[in-house]
Amino acid sequence: MLKNYRIVVAVVVCVIFEICSGSLPSNINKCKISDHVCIAKSINDVLRLYPKGDPSFGFVDISEIKRPKIILSEDKNRQKSSVGFNLIVENAVLNGLENAKVTSVSGFDPNISKITVTADIMNLRLTGDYTVNGNILLLQLKGKGKGEIKSKRTTCKVTVDVRVEIRNGKNYLAINRIKMDIQPHDLHVRLDNLFDGNKELTESLNETINKNWRDFWMELRDLANDALADLSRGILESAFNRLSYDDFYVN
């Protein structure tokens, strides 16, 4: 009786390990370690073939990423600030990551500690219900309503500091830190209902922001990079927790 019980337990444990681990689909080529050209191509194949994600290897749907709240604030520790810039986007929806095309990668080496991935992203778009209060481009912005920020082309460089953890006899990646560097090649901003719906001020401020979008982005860049780094962490951790680093490569 005890022997049969042990067999059942062993089978259950094996099934759990199988469910909790994953492997790359057969239509995604595995590469030799440090073959960064091959790795970039395989990442692009994943983006092209699985824009809606695939839970079997922990890849989430990146075609429409929804978050209850995204905060771009110079002081997240204070609920209200009389200076600086504070933008909150609730019911946020980010579209366009599925259009990313990886142009270069580095760091996928035997002693992995830092990964860098650079990609071009077409038609990136963030929408949601915004609340803004603060100063940017020497302008005072205050309002609440529907908002949109979009770019026809964006270059994104992601640097991920990682460590290797051994689980169930395999090597898995864990994230220490993510740094994001986003460089839009164009930018269009639309904030409705500024200053309690003052139409003239709303149109004038939107026009000024879009005419000076480069300066607007320079002031917003660090806040946006931090916010998108947080978002990217969740996407990467889902895959890293499911897919062992050993399974990235050919034997």
TrEMBL record:
Signal peptide: 1-22
Gene Ontology annotations of biological process type: circadian rhythm
Protein keywords: Biological rhythms, Signal
GO cellular component, one term: extracellular space
Superkingdom classification of source: Eukaryota
Family affiliation: Belongs to the TO family.
Name assigned to this protein: Uncharacterized protein
Lineage: Eukaryota, Metazoa, Ecdysozoa, Arthropoda, Hexapoda
